[in-house]
Amino acid sequence: MYVSLVLDIPTRALDKPYSYVVPPELEDQVGVGCTVLASFGRRDVVAYVVEACTEPPQGVDESKLKPVLGVLAPAAFDRTAAQLALWMAQEYAAPLVDCVRLLLPPGQGTRMQRSQEGGAWELVVEQAKPVDERWAALTEQGRAYEPPRNALRQRQVLEALGAGSLRLAELSVLVPGARTAVNALAKRGAVTVFAHRHVRGTDAATTLSSAQATRPAQLTRGQRLALSEIRGAVAAGAGDVVLVDGVTGSGKTEVYLSAIEEVLRAGRGAIVLVPEISLTAQTVGRFRSRFGDRVAVLHSRLSTGERFDQWDLVRQGIARVVVGARSALYAPLPDPGLIIIDEEHEGSYKQDSSPRYHAREVAAELARRRGAALVLGSATPSLESLGRVRVGSWHGVSWTRVEMPERPGGAVLPQVEVVDLTREFASGNRSVFSRALRDALLDVAQRKGKAVLLLNRRGFAPFLMCRDCGCVPTCPHCSTALTYHERGHLLVCHSCDRSWSVLAYPHPASACPACGSRYLAQVGIGTQRVEDELALLLGPDVDVIRMDADSTRRKGEHQRLLEQFDASPCAVLVGTQMIAKGLDFPEVTLVGVVNADTSLKLPDFRAAERTYDLLEQVAGRAGRGERPGRVIVQTYWASHPAIRAVATHDRATFLDAELADRHEAGYPPFTRLGNVIFTGADEGAVRRASLELALALSDASEELEVLGPSDCVRAKVKDRHRRHVLVKAPHDYALGPTLAGAVAGLGRLSGVSVAVDVDAYDMM
Ligand code: ADP
Ligand code: ZN
Ligand code: ZN
């Protein structure tokens, strides 16, 4: 038997599988998906089997093949998954082993590690294991059993178990010393002790009413159309894509649930991707309430043990619906009939570390290879998806769009008002709230209603500026403006996490680092400031709940805040983008956007699209119940197409302007964009390497347009310099292999690291 192995050595130079021979005594243990030990050069390495066959590989001298030395872990993935990993490595110019590792069970990795610098290599095995818990229960005889008169403990144990079986751990709390008594009773046949697998990661229940997905009496016309389109794609089994283009609150989740039901009935499984940030108890609850224990949940906020248990539920075939972030794509589900990506336009579907893949593209490839259908859902589909739908097909599979323009039950889309802050300022209003927003908030308070307030500050956290010279304190180790945290008066670097007390920045006296002025003023508004102003405006009868990175740092805090908002009779929820997604509170009638345009000014060609998506999402939080909703958007840039489109509920206003801009500038979806980032402590070395790559790419193909090298927007992070080369290629160009080839051809890069980002999202 012969195998192809992916060696666990993360270097670009080794980016193909290697052939090995399997000795006869190992043959019945080795197969695709196994982790094995193999020798490479003069050392032993961990490797993963991605192919196994009985014929020797062609064009290889069989006698030169080295043997597999041993099996370290049983099969974790199948051949289709292995091939998906090989495809990803090519498509995204990523180290092969980074792609294969995605397929391994959480917390069960195996690797070779040096005990110290230059020391011997040794094998390290992570050991996430299932947890068995021991339980005790009364037997039939036990109910009538009379323990010896002096056996008080036994008597107490019998009494405790009379009410039902208990974990031994619990029993020992109720009856100290219970274990000895249980053993004695077990010997007499009065009690049985059994192991029961404890599954971690099955989130605690939530009190949120909206976490229930009660089946509606009747589907809307749009939902029925979407469902029948999906049914067709599932039946075709060819990886066909259905884009469910439904306004916020149109009932997309119900479409997913019904489609999954049908797929389960046919004996197949389903994968549902949800952006990490909206993987809340509310979202998970809707799936659990419909599919119960058949749901496994996978995301990075779970502990390793929890992730292992959820992964294992899938492998055992118990869970056939996997709900999760990007990583759910790699769950060991052998036969998914359906893959669903909710909020498919979300930037977080692009992974920002190696392998830098986009979950939408990997899902499309996986659906094709598994004979499944791919459903993309959004109220604001990405320009990439809209582009493919317009053409009707992409890489040989069909792309169709179904519209769901209405909300069920006659709920109407909220009315959107735009407040021009330049006028507000001119008329002397210096408050965070315009008069319109202020009045609307007071109105909600008076009617004992609920409101949501968004502070759009992606990339624009509040900072300090010198009123005399305009200088902004930046981190001496990173080219990042320091963020001002009002509580605690700290300046924090969000790149390296260093912080300075304002009174001590940059030196004992809080003076401007450039001109020495003592007059540093705050620019931009923080959530804490808005929280304070709200409390002042609305008084003690209205609960003000703040949700941002700081207030949700601890596990479970996010859910607790939502439950608090849900339970409160009258409340305002104020927060950053994390409040915009997927929240479904029918009592919310007012949504305010404190500053709509901050993210429009970011140096990123997707800035307008992201702003539009965010505003449309957050506006969709209003008026989901019987009462109509109202949205107030404050902006300094009222004429921007993204803002106008949100105000008129007319996506074409935004799309037409945006597509024309992108076409003219040669940006996606009209092109593919690659970004190669060089980082290192030695600025000269970083400059030389980036220049060499730019030249190589210019020579590589006439079809490429090479921009740079130039400094990244974040030109320095943690004392390492950052430069990048941008490449534009035709929209169907195989960019991954070209970039990988060019990077591999670079001379020795001492101290400089290279990151290749195909279809880049983060340009900073
Ligand atoms: P979306 O995901 O499109 O934003 P949701 O799936 O959250 O929308 O649905 C919005 C609300 O409408 C939910 O409260 C849901 O229970 C309800 N709903 C969905 N479908 C129907 C239907 N056919 N009839 C009545 N209510 C529905
Ligand atoms: Zn100054
Ligand atoms: Zn820093």
Measured on Cα atoms, how large is the radius of gyration? 29 Å
Given helix and strand content, the structural type is: alpha/beta
Biggest sheet statistics: 8 strands, mixed
Instruction: Provide the CATH topology of the largest domain.
Output: Rossmann fold
CATH H-tier superfamily of the largest domain: P-loop containing nucleotide triphosphate hydrolases
Tell me, what is the CATH class of the largest domain?
A: Alpha Beta
Mean pLDDT: 85
Low-confidence stretches: 504-508
Physical arrangement of strands within the biggest beta sheet: 13-14-12-15-16-11-18-17
Strand fraction equals 25-35%
* Ends apart, CA distance between termini: 49 Å
CATH architecture of the largest domain: 3-Layer(aba) Sandwich
**Which small molecules are bound?**
adenosine-5'-diphosphate, zinc ion
- Overall outline: globular
Proportion of residues in helical segments: 25-40%
Number of strands: 33
Counted up, domains total 6
Q: In DSSP terms, counting alpha (H) and pi (I) runs of 4 or more, how many helices? A: 21
Description of the molecule:
- The protein is α/β, with parallel strands linked by helices.
- It folds into six domains: about 1-125, GIY-YIG endonuclease (3-Layer(aba) Sandwich), CATH 3.40.1440.60; about 130-200, Arc Repressor Mutant, subunit A (Orthogonal Bundle), CATH 1.10.10; about 220-410, P-loop containing nucleotide triphosphate hydrolases (Rossmann fold, 3-Layer(aba) Sandwich); about 415-460 and about 530-660, P-loop containing nucleotide triphosphate hydrolases (Rossmann fold, 3-Layer(aba) Sandwich), CATH 3.40.50; about 460-525, no CATH class; about 670-760, 2-Layer Sandwich (Alpha-Beta Plaits), CATH 3.30.70.
- It contains 21 helices and 33 strands.
- It has an eight-stranded mixed sheet. Strands 19-29-28-20-27-26 form a six-stranded parallel sheet, sandwiched between helices. The protein has a five-stranded antiparallel sheet with strand order 2-1-4-3-5.
- A hairpin with a 6-residue loop joins strand 6 and strand 7 (about 120-125).
- The chain starts with a strand and ends in a 6-residue tail after the last strand.
- Bound molecules: adenosine-5'-diphosphate (ADP) and zinc ion (ZN) (2 copies).
- One zinc ion binds near residues 493 and 496.
